[in-house]
Amino acid sequence: MNQQISIVIAGPRGKMGREAVSMVSGTPHFTLAAVIDSKNAGKKVSDLEGMPSLDVPVFDDAKLCFAEIRPDVLIDLTKPEIGKVHLEQALEHNVRPVIGTTGFSDEDLERLQNLAKEKELGAIIAPNFAIGAILMMKFAQMASKYLPDVEIIEKHHDQKLDAPSGTALKTAQLVREVREPKSQGHPEEREDLPGARGAELDGIRIHSVRLPGLVAHQEVILGGEGQTLTIKHDSMNRTSFMPGVKMAVEAVVNLDHLVYGLENIIE
Ligand SMILES: NC(=O)C1=CN([C@@H]2O[C@H](COP(=O)(O)OP(=O)(O)OC[C@H]3O[C@@H](n4cnc5c(N)ncnc54)[C@H](OP(=O)(O)O)[C@@H]3O)[C@@H](O)[C@H]2O)C=CC1
Ligand SMILES: O=C(O)C1=N[C@H](C(=O)O)C[C@H](O)C1
User: Fold this and answer.
1) Cα–Cα distance between 139 and 178 in angstroms, integer?
2) Which of 104, 105, 202, 217 could form a disulfide linkage to 181, CB 3.0–4.6 angstroms apart?
3) Do 223 and 203 form a contact (C-beta atoms < 8 A)?
4) Is 14 annotated as contributing to ligand binding?
5) Do the beta carbons of residue 69 and residue 33 sit within 8 Å?
6) Rounded to an integer, what distance in angstroms lies between the CA atom of residue 195 and that of residue 118?
7) How confident is the model over 176-232, as pLDDT tens digits?
8) Is the pLDDT of residue 267 over 80?
9) pLDDT of residue 180
């Protein structure tokens, strides 16, 4: 029988938060214990516009919420500067965080990894919860051993705050693990318009597109002599992320350290 897991969601009115509220409240062994919403303290989820009729309290302060509710897991789907703070506060209150919020630097990750280690508490930071996107990243890593010239094009809706996307960064980090840093393109190439060659991580170029109409899409293009390989993933809607969120919640309760990337859970 599945273990009953008590969950708090931060960012419930957001595009991802709404999907998460629906997934958690519809999963028999999950209990939605509270939500964290900085604008609606003291209300119930059922008072929030367009939300399901749930008698679940709304807190504006994460620390207060964790102290009063004592949930097993926090799901954070807010924005970069808030996600980091919530993760730390969750660990301080012995709550295991599942963080979908993107925009973490290498320094942030190291600090948070150390904090989870000190507390011997599970935590997951997942730049992308979609199983197809995780496979796309793994396939790109495998392919870059043989075709080490790699460029990433990520395309998102125009409400996205962070660039490059967490997925593009994670892809570049996975590629970096298996290939030497290298300079791509002509050694004497120049940018006649700054930014024309995109952002760069150890020589891997990342190009970020933001347009209305898009959801979340990424292509990894690898080039070799006389050939290219394109690995592409598209999320058409945000329900595509929910099986991964569910999997992360089920996994984090059995972890005693921070895991960065769901590829470490599905293997
Ligand atoms: N890992 C993954 O697979 C995915 C990750 N993401 C990431 O998830 C995050 C959210 O994305 P998305 O839902 O599209 O964004 P939205 O802007 O739609 O939602 C963000 C929500 O966070 C809320 N928020 C802001 N500050 C706080 C706070 N202090 N406490 C509680 N809630 C707060 C906002 O509320 P308000 O209206 O009050 O500002 C808003 O409702 C982003 O970082 C995005 O990159 C997105 C999709 C998939
Ligand atoms: O903001 C989004 O929408 C998404 N953010 C994540 C990212 O930065 O990679 C995951 C997905 O691409 C959607």
Assistant:
1) 12
2) 202
3) no
4) yes
5) yes
6) 40
7) 999 988 889 999 999 999 999 999 999 999 999 999 999 999 999 999 999 999 999
8) no
9) 87
Look up residue 166 and give its amino acid.
G
Expressed in angstroms and rounded, the spacing between residue 11 Cα and the centre of ligand 1 is 5
ipTM over 0.85: yes
Residue 205 to residue 168: CA distance in whole angstroms: 10
| Residue 117 confidence (pLDDT) | 96
Mean pLDDT of the chain: 96
Q: Which of 93, 156, 233, 246 is catalytic?
A: 156
pTM above 0.95, yes or no: yes
Q: Cα separation of 159 and 156, whole Å?
A: 8
CB 209 within 8 A of CB 157: no
Strand ranges, E, within 11-78: 30-36, 58-59, 73-76
- Show the tokens assigned to 87: 């993760």
Q: Could you tell me whether strands 227-235 and 216-224 are parallel, antiparallel, or unpaired per DSSP bridges? A: antiparallel
The reply to whether omega before 12 is within 30° of 0 (cis) is no
Find the mean pLDDT for residues 43-61.
96
- Consult the annotation and say whether 182 binds a ligand: no
| Cis amide prior to 164 (ω within 30 degrees) | yes
- Determine the atom of ligand 2 nearest the C-alpha atom of 170: 9
